[in-house]
Design a protein that fits this description.
It is a single chain. By secondary structure, the chain is α/β, with parallel strands linked by helices. It folds into two domains: about 210 residues, 3-Layer(aba) Sandwich (Rossmann fold), CATH 3.40.50.10490; about 40 residues. It contains eleven helices and five strands. It has a five-stranded parallel sheet, with helices on both faces. Helix 5 crosses helix 6.
Length: about 270
């Protein structure tokens, strides 16, 4: 199958090594400004995917992100930020990267070329029809991801994809294909740049909107965040002060006793 790999096309800029630092920075920023607009065009597809994920997660379903290299790392990053931000167990959003966790820091040779491994990993996690599998690949050609999406779909599991090329083999395997066309990279083919930035934005959009719809945010606040450091305890205490009108120390004690803003405020309201 031949299709145009926009993500691999030559940079719009020449002779990068001859430019000043300031010129390089301004050029990169110029390119980065295209990313949010490319993501904006994907909102209908992101909406379509999220709207199908929410009812599945309400029944105990999970999101699996799958990718290799930068794409895999970004999936693992987004998944790892869900427990501290929203107080969800780490089993709800799971990031899988070709080559396993060692690939987070080191390139793992040929890991992304194994078309069977992705589905095997999903089976190791007991994948079922309530789950969602989202493939992430700038090129849209990563065999590890394509094989997993194909098998997931055969088993009636919701599949999504995020790529930087139109009509890719990966998109063909997804129920909902998100195609974020950011154009050629500043350094030709370096998809850690605009493609990676856009992927991060879309992953933030998916999980944040899902978690809001799952009731993990109140008003505009992270009422279920983990109290893993002093800054977060202070933030949580101030939320309780604002909502219940209590003195700071009393609010802090209430928060620490109950472990989250939501549990603390719910307990106080039921008992006063």
């Amino acid at each position: 199958m031949s299709f145009v790999k926009i993500s691999e096309q030559p940079s719009l800029y020449e002779n990068l090594e001859k430019k000043s630092v300031r010129e390089i920075l301004e050029d990169i920023n110029q390119e980065d400004q295209k990313v949010a607009l490319a993501v904006q065009k994907c909102i209908p597809q992101i909406d379509k995917l999220v709207s199908q994920i929410v009812p599945r997660m309400q029944e105990g379903g999970r999101i699996f992100y799958m990718g290799a290299g930068t794409s895999g790392r970004l999936g693992v990053l987004d998944a790892s930020e869900i427990p501290p931000t929203f107080g969800m167990p780490p089993t709800y959003v799971i990031g899988l990267i070709a080559g396993g966790d060692i690939a987070l820091r080191n390139p793992v040779e040929n890991a992304e070329d194994d078309e069977k491994r992705g589905w095997e990993e999903l089976q190791e996690h007991g994948i079922n029809e309530k789950d969602t599998v989202i493939g992430i690949a700038a090129s849209g050609t990563t065999p590890y991801v394509i094989g997993a999406l194909r098998e997931a779909r055969k088993h009636g599991i919701l599949t999504g994809s995020i790529s930087s090329n139109p009509d890719s083999p990966m998109a063909a395997e997804a129920d909902v294909a998100i195609e974020m066309i950011v154009g050629p990279e500043y350094v030709s083919g370096s998809s850690r740049m605009k493609s990676g930035t856009g992927q991060k934005m879309i992953l933030n959009m998916i999980t944040t909107s899902v978690m809001i719809k799952m009731g993990r945010v109140k008003g505009n606040k992270m009422v279920n965040m983990q109290l893993s450091n002093k800054k977060l305890v202070d933030r949580g205490t101030n939320m309780i002060v604002e909502e219940l009108g209590l003195p700071y120390e009393e609010a802090k004690e209430l928060l620490i006793t109950h472990g989250s803003v939501k549990k603390a405020t719910d307990f106080y309201k039921q008992n006063h």
